[in-house]
Design a protein that fits this description.
Strand content: under 5%
Helix content: 55-70%
Number of helices: 5
Number of strands: 0
Number of domains: 1
Order of helices and strands: HHHHH
Structural class: mainly alpha
Oligomer: single chain
Shape: elongated
Radius of gyration: 19 Å
Mean pLDDT: 80
Distance between the termini: 18 Å
């Protein structure tokens, strides 16, 4: 059976760079209330790093990290978390407004609910974009997984 993915050089470069790309995505998501960026931009970077792994190692390379089912579950969890943050404000009388104490300017934990909202959007966007990629890349026109038997197409 032929090994999936690209050449050994691409796989080694991917192993070295994808952790830095993921770290940058988390940085953007965590610091979104202090600087430009946030959950959406961090989620896009996260999804692109998962796509990078998939392109380098093939579809089996990313299944242990983020399968289509897990991506769908994470997307739903991110949306639910974002909704719960908004609804939790109803208890304090401020729907989607800050109800947590704020800190000092330019400190990581100073944004109240903004960081929580950014992280929820990070999970939703990252998992959602990867699920869209996986659906487009791995599913045939009939909605079932394509099977390549090695014959002519």
């Amino acid at each position: 059976m032929k090994e999936q993915g690209m050449s050994i050089l691409v796989k080694r470069i991917t192993r070295m760079t994808v952790s830095l790309i993921l770290l940058y995505g988390f940085y953007i998501a965590f610091h979104g209330h202090l600087s430009p960026g946030g959950g959406f931009a961090g989620g896009v970077i996260f999804a692109l790093s998962m796509i990078h792994i998939t392109l380098a190692f093939g579809r089996e390379g990313v299944k242990g990290i983020l399968s289509k089912a897990r991506a769908s579950l994470l997307e739903s969890a991110g949306a639910l978390a974002f909704l719960l943050i908004g609804v939790a404000g109803i208890i304090t009388g401020t729907f989607f407004l800050n109800f947590l104490p704020t800190g000092y300017e330019f400190r990581l934990f100073s944004g109240g609910t903004m960081m929580l909202s950014n992280l929820a959007i990070f999970v939703k966007v990252g998992a959602g974009l990867f699920a869209v990629f996986a659906a487009l890349a791995f599913l045939g026109p009939d909605g079932h997984a394509e099977v390549n038997d090695g014959g002519e197409q």
